[in-house]
Each structure stands twice: as structure tokens, then as C-alpha cells.
Amino acid sequence: MIINIFAVIGVLIFVFIVGYILLRFLIINLGYEFNKLEILVFSVLLTIPIIYVVAIAFSGFGIKLTGLNLSIFFLVLAGILIISTKKDIKTIKKNENENLINLPFIFVFLLTLILMVVTLYKNPLPFATDLSNHGYYIREVFFTHTLPNFHLPVFVIGENLIISIPSIIFNIDPLSIFPIIILFLFKMITILLIYLLAYKLFESKTVALLVMLTLGIFYSFGPPGTIYVYGGVIGNVIGDGLIMASLYILYRTLYESEKYFLFFLLFFFSLVYTHTLSLLILFFIIIFLLNLLVLFDRINTLYKIKMLTKFLKNRYFLFTLLLLLVISFIYLPTYISKENLEKITTEPIMELQKQKLDISYFKNVLGSLRFSLGILGLSMLLFSKQNKNIKIFFVSWLIPLLLLSWEKMTFIGLPQARVLNYMIYPFSILMIYPLCYLRIYKNSKKITIFYLFIILILIVGFSLPERALEENMPKERILNLYHASMYLKSLINENEVVLTEHQNSGFPDTWTRVFLLGGYNKVIERVYYFRYNNDPVKETWVMMTEPNSPKGLEYMQKNNVTYIIQNTQKVNSEFLKSRNFFKIYQGDTITIFSKK
Amino acid sequence: MKNYKPKELQTYYLIVVCLTFLISVIILVNEYNTSLVTTENLGFILYFNEFPKEKNNQILVNFTIENYIEENAEFDYYIYVDNKILVEKTVVLGLKKNIFTQPINLIEDLETVTYFKTLKIKVKKGESVKEIYYFN
């Protein structure tokens, strides 16, 4: 459980270097233009498809995902890429004129970083249910050295591989803060991407900085920020970054050069193997964007498509496409099958609350200030003399999000609030647009500094002490659960199953599964049956509430339940009164019963 | 003072960004490692090492008291067999694991009973009480 800091630093360097070697290869051989900040961001992001391809290819050839095998392969791959990179360094083109990293940038970046670190610092021990669900499979890959067998199609292979592969190479037990560190890295990369995107759209460092500032500060408190990082919402965190990267690259493909499409292909592939919802959203954004472009800018769009088709014959592109196709033949994400797609869209596991999309709901998810200023920014943008490409870009970004979060569209099983969370990104840019429109930042630098200062004081002054410094789960409860789980690990047999409280238990009991491994159903949780659709979970409810009833005992026998974890403060007296159960463990937070 | 070219400055600023992130990660990992071993709020934990076994009219009771309160803390523990106190002890425990193996002779201690139905261990430390039990 205790992890080596040098191994973690090694992973961070690995995540950068692997992508950087590929990026350098592509820059030199295909003549891409990237500034230093873009090189940093895309190096980290390019590591994602490399990890996916390597892990799936290993599994396809029946090679175990051991530290030695992976290390040798990555070294050989790096060697091949370095050797086959053209030696003529003069061909490297860099956007050195874009001095995107300056002192205000450092100031805003550090502020964002500090705010996120403060929140993470208060919650260093993993406890979130989402992270435990992924943690189970990540640890399974870590120990078995093979791809996991998911119990539900909603789990996507990439969100596990991105953590398990580095943890195997550097021998870091994923049952630790390590997954949170990886997510923290990708969250910071997403913030940098937003900065790059805002700059690309409005060509103003001040506007880009303000976008980064507002988003960065917001990230410290609500979803999809730090809470998603320590909450382990891996698909969302990586998915956000990949959506931003795809949009950024798509913009450059459309308005700079068609050769950037190669990067789009890599990021799109990564998203297919990372997160279903993010993929669906990006897919609809692209559909809308292409349609609107054909509708409002037909001649240019047709010309761009013609240029793009020429690039599709490029040997590097064709090789990449072929490689990715081979990979998808070896392993398709579990959700890509008619049966599973129906399961995760039309038959959600949990009952979804349909919420009417009114202004208060938007304000609730986006925040009043962001929503109001965003709407103002959108109106100003649409009626401005701004380049129509930017207008089309934002409209294509917003309409699919609006439609997918509409309550009448929930028949396809998408959680509205989660879809609406994706609106935070365009709204973070749009809320700063009024500044851009009025050209305030050009008139006086003092006004910009004033704005920065006011926002800083408001946010830090009012919100930080209350929310960022919150400890979401007391450490002693987490530690007691860890202790109890290790106790069970020393006791439990192969066929025995643990039943836990789950909802409102007051401790992170889903983590017991990550400790025990031995099958996802080694630990079953009592769930509120009215929240879930499938019948078997009702049994967990009966076992926990009426353990001595004939049904309760029958279900325990049927499910091989041998150990029951309860909150010491809220123990069901039915267990205490009964001769069917022994009490074998008691701490301040956890009590464990054993079935006779 | 040396005047840096914008290109050089970009590199230095980028190094600052990366180093700050690295320092943040070091702080977080350090806090995580420290939190794992900071157990003073755990109180004490009581559990069976193995379930009590009856052999040759003797029960072997094997249990652990993990003490996270303070070094050399005084605990009272009681062992009940069929609701009769057979063992009553005050022990001074070190931090973390304190393993106890307590043999109980059924014929001598319970006189007439040669078969036990229930066994309970109760541990007290001030106001805090923990108990575990086993049915034969």
C-alpha cells in the first residue's frame, strides 16, 4: 500500500517520454508545427493510444503484460522511433513566436495547481466507489498480467490500462494514491488544453488566461474537477482531455492543415477505448460541425474535404489506420456489440431521474455566474462580426450537449447531469467572450489585472475554506475499512462471499473487493432495490435487513455469503440476536459477522 | 542582470510548470504514505485470529487486540463461556498487534459442562468496549 515516490516520478517521466518520442518522430517526418506547451500536452496525450495499442497487441499475441516484457518492448519501440526519425533537425518547424508561457500564465497555472492540490491533500486515501470499481480491474491486470474480464459492459478497457500498465512497469500497487496521481496529471493537461483552445480561437493570451483561471478555480470544487480526480471517475477525466484534444486538433485540421487529422485519428481511437459517454458526445459534435460547415461554408468545406482525402493516402496515416484496425480486430471495447449497446443505453443499471431542463437546472450544474456570463458571451458571439468558423464551432459544440441532456432524450439512458457537465468547457470559454468582444483587454492592461484580482479574491476568499478543505471521508473510517479488508483477506476461502452495507454505510466498503480480488462478485453490496432494475440485487437487501428470515438465510446460502460487514454504529440488531452469526471483528467503524 | 530571449524564457517557464507539478505529486504521495501509518484515531480493534476450537475438553481461544491509543495502555479483557466469566485480566499493551492465546479447561473451569455453546470476549479501555463472540 505504501508507494515509492521515485517510482511515481518514474511513471510521470515515462508518460511524457513515450508520447514525446512519437510526437518528435511525427513532427520531424511530417512537418507538424507545435509550440513548447503543445509539445508538453500532446506528448502526455499520445502516450494513451500507445499504451492501449501495446497492451491489446500483447494480449492478441498471448504475451503476458509483465514489467519486463513491457519495459523491453517500450525500449525497443523508442529505439526504433528514434533511429527512424530523420536526422535533418532543420526540418523541425516550431511556433516559437507564440510566447504562450509567460509570467501571468505561471501565476494562473500555479494558482490552479495549488487549489487542486489542497483538495487532494485533504483526501489522500482512496475511498470513492467509482475508483474502487475501476481499482478492482486495474489490480486484476496488475496481478494477472492479462486483460480483465468485465462483469458489466459499461467498463471500458482503456480506463484501466492507462493506470495498470504504468503500475506494472514501475511496480506500484494500484491500491494506493497512484490512480489519483495519474488522473491529477490528465486533469492538469486538460486545463492546459483549454488554455490552448481558447488562445487558438480568440488569439488573445489574456482571454485564454482568464478561461484557464475560471475553469481552474472551478475545478477545485465541483464536478468534473478535483472531485472526479479523487473520486476516480477515470473515463470522464481522460475522456474530457481527449475530447478537448480532438476538438483542438480538429480545429487545426479544418483551418490550418489537413495533416493534423492523424492526431485526430489517434485521439478518437483512444476515446473509443476509454469512455462511452465522451465518445458519444464527441461523435455528435463532429456530426453537427460537419453539417453546419457544409450548410454555411460549402465551398471551403468541400475544398478541405478534398485536401483531407489526399492526406488519407499518406503512408504514415495509412500505417496508423491499419495498425488501429488490427488492434480493433484483436479487441473491441465490451460495449461495442448490439446486445451490450442496448444494455448500456436503453436499459441502464440504475433508474435515471428525469429532470426538466429549465434554467435552474443549468444554473445548478454550470453555476449561476458561468451560466449567465456564458449565455451573454454566446449571444454576443452570435451577433458579433467574429469569424463565422468560431460561431459554427461553438454552436456545434453546444447543440449536441443540449440535445443529449434533454429530458425527452433520456430514453437512450444517458445521465443528464453528466452530459451537462461537458457544457462547463464551452461555457468557461464563452463566459470570458464578453471581454474579448468589448476588447477591454486591449485598452488597458490594468483592467485585466483588476479582473484577475477580483475573481481571485472572490473565489479564494469565499469558497476555499469551506469546500476545498473538506475531508470527504474521515481517514480513520477509511483506515478501519482497509484494516478489516486485510483481516478478511487472511481469513476468506475461495468460494466464500462477503456482503457489505454499501449505501449510507459511512465507510468506503466497496474497497474490500479491491483488497480481496478473487472475482468481482467476491463482495456483494446491499443496494436500494428501487434504484436498480435487475432483480438479484433485491436479495442483498433482504440478506442485510432480514438476515434470520427464511428468505434471508436462503439467499445467503445461495450466494455463498459467509462474512457480513456492518457499520459498528449502525449494526442491525437482527445479527446480534441470532445464533446464525458470530461477531468476529470489531473496530470503531467496522464490525464483521461470520455466518455459522 | 541577464536579458533572456523569449525562446529561453519559454523553456525556463515550462521547467517551472513541470517542476511545480512534480513537487505537488511528491507532496501528495508523501501525505498518502503518512496517512496510511497515522493510526492514532483508530482506537482499538478486537478480532479472532481463528475460531475457538474444542479439543480434549479444552478450548483454545486465539484473539488479537490491536492498540492504536497509546504505548503501554491498560486494557481489561474478559472471556465468557456460556455466559460465565472464566477469564478476567488487566493487561498493559504495546502499540499495534497484541496476540493472545488463552487455553480454557472446560472440566476444571466449568465443572459440570464438557461442551460449550457460546464464547464471548469483551475488551474494555475506559468507556470504549468491544466484543466478539462465537457459537459452537
The Cα radius of gyration of chain B reads 27 Å
Could you estimate the helical fraction of the residues of chain A in percent? 55-70%
Q: Remind me, CATH topology of the largest domain in chain B?
A: Immunoglobulin-like
Taken from the alpha-carbon principal axes, the silhouette of chain A is: globular
Structural notes for this entry:
The complex is a heterodimer of chains A (596) and B (136). With 596 residues, chain A is mainly α. Chain A has two domains: 5-467, no CATH class; 475-595, Rossmann fold. Helix content of chain A is 65%, strand content 4%. Chain A has a five-stranded mixed β-sheet with strand order 2-1-3-5-4, with helices on both faces. In chain A, helix 2 (36-60) packs across helix 7 (178-202), helix 12 (276-296) packs across helix 13 (298-311) and helix 26 (537-545) packs across helix 27. The radius of gyration of chain A is 25 Å and the shape is globular. The model of chain A has no long low-confidence stretch (mean pLDDT 83). With 136 residues, chain B is an alpha+beta fold. Helix content of chain B is 27%, strand content 49%. Chain B is built from two helices and seven strands, in the order H-E-E-E-E-E-H-E-E. Chain B has helices at 6-37, 106-110, and strands at residues 44-55, 58-67, 73-81, 84-93, 96-105, 118-125, 128-135. Chain B has a four-stranded antiparallel β-sheet with strand order 4-3-6-7, with no helix packed on it. In chain B, strands 1-2-5 form a three-stranded antiparallel β-sheet. The model of chain B has no long low-confidence stretch (mean pLDDT 85). Classes of the chains: A mainly alpha (596), B alpha+beta (136). At the A-B interface, helix 1, helix 2, helix 4, helix 7 and helix 24 of A face helix 1, strand 1 and strand 7 of B. Strand 4 of chain A pairs antiparallel with strand 1 of chain B, so a sheet runs across the interface.
Looking at this protein, list some descriptive labels.
heterodimer, A: mainly alpha, Rossmann fold, 28 helices, B: alpha+beta, Immunoglobulin-like, 2 domains, four-stranded antiparallel sheet, 2 helices, rod-shaped
